Structures
1.
Amino acid sequence: MNDITSPDIARDYLACFNKSWNDQTLADDLRFVVLDTETTGLDPRRDRIITIGAVAVRARQIILADSFEVMLKLAYNSSSVTVHGITREEARDGLDEPEALERFLEYLRDGVIVGHHILHDIETINAACERHFGCNLRNRFLDTMDLTLHLQADGAFPEDAIQGFSLDALCDFFEVPPRDRHTAGGDAFITALIFLRLLCLGRKYGRNTLGTLTQPFLSV
């Protein structure tokens, strides 16, 4: 626990879950937070967050007024700069990690996290929250890849319709322009557009509650 304010931050965040969603909550009643992070690498314990981008979806609409984006200070330039393009010099006016996380938790509250291959983002944020606040994220979450695979198995589209299930492949399939790729805010918005398409299909194929939407896809 490195920050003297961390007990208050953790307490206020965790209090959001005293009365929150359950498996039967309908999709239109949920606040989804579509999330993306850019990081210095793929190891959640060793690498650090560079940017966090998020936008809310409610009642099958993207709520631009309910969005979040922050850049953190960088201690060094990593090889990932070739992907996101952010250097230590460009991030010199960014926030320190504890302040960025505090702002993010205040924004996130008990929103249902949505993202493509979202476990990496969650694990990286968890490692940072443990460092500073002694807590992990408690939010329910869903991976758009898992939901896509479920809908494919449900018969929403042919098995060979999407190649590879990358974010770019889903952009192609759902005709979503991949603008601002490999920026946290851009990828969050792109994923939100894809998620809206998945929500519409989910409603048609009986996936319209928190429980059915967040079900992991287990291949046989």
Note: The chain has one domain: 6-213.
2.
Amino acid sequence: MSDFDFDLFVIGAGSGGVRAARFSAGFGARVAVAEERYLGGTCVNVGCIPKKLLVYASHFAEDFHVAQQGFGWSLGETRFDWKTFIKNKDGEIQRLNGIYQGLLDNTGVQHIQGHARIVDAHSVEVAGQRYTAKNILIATGSWPNMPDIPGIEHAISSNEAFHLEEQPQRILIVGGGYIAVEFACILNGLGSEVIQLYRGPLFLRGFDDDVRAHLAEEIRKRDIDLRFDLNVVSIEKTDSEFCATLTDGSQLSADQILFATGRVPLTENLGLENAGVKLNDKGAIAVDETSRSNVPNIYAIGDVTDRMNLTPVAIHEGVCLANTLFNNTPMNPVHSNVPAAVFSQPPIGTVGLTEAQAREEFGAVDIYRSSFRSLRNTLTDSQEKTFMKLIVDKKSDRVVGLHMVGPEAGEIVQGFAVAIKCGATKKDFDSTLGIHPTSAEEFVTLREPG
């Protein structure tokens, strides 16, 4: 036994922190996890899970329309009840919180409730109690960024959006990242009037340009008022509504204003300065390829490092760290060819490089594109189009990017991500038989580069 209370003290019980703690304990380490809010972190409580449940709820109106218009179903009056959904959603989140507690208990991890603050390189204090640890892992995640403008106290972030007592009939959403896009589509599907503003010329910066343009076109078909090159400069509250003044001098009124203008690493009041832990120019904890900070025994994973802010990535980083520290199996996390989805309507699925990234890395590339109405929509008046794109390194014939906008894009791209990870070539795609009739078969029948 060492002179320390724990071999590993984890600050933050989100997906990454819990996975690192569980695996480390499974390898025989003495582990504690401190959490001041909720088990499961952003993903379980105010992120992936409740967001996906909202996506499911918001899609039924379209499904009812399609069933009645094109497929012969007769439907009675339909009505969405926000309070019922929120109650059911909260019940599921509470169940998941309990599962996370059970995962910690079953592996012998000590759960300490409260805000943890680093005292020195080997000491952490929680609620007046000091603990010592051979290694410290920071996995505190990120927090919504709210701009410093007059009246910002009247707006909400994505955190509060999951707990609104009433569904806003008119909502203004500010931001152009995936969170803003997803909430715009969700609330539109549930019947709210939605205006989405983004300060730049096209939203979803970092995604493939064709994907961004295609989704903007599809979103507008759903009567979402999407406006680019605009931002909010101030907000005023009246007795019955909120009024936002925009950069062009115009004003918009809404029942609610949601800012989804990015998230920042949650590093405040952690006592990082007491141990000399350095931050990078984005305010994230600077780490090397092993997730180690500049202090040899202090590590960080997940959104607080601002490397690739996705739940599966944080989990992967946690597993790698546990193996490296306590299983005599050094593992560095891999951040290339990570598949991702945006649960917009229609959703995005993507893996590998964008066209711009591929041209920069390889120079000569072949681009394969397809856009079509899905079979499901041919019996209805829906003009929604599915978009697919392959990016191929011309020299090696390897498929280096695969992108989709359309129903079940996340499910489809997950499978193709295995092929991309394995280095599949366009010839491999061409020699694979498609499942007919499906949208996914389009990826293996694209023949002519654009």
Note: The chain has three domains: 6-47+84-144+264-326, 152-261, 340-444.
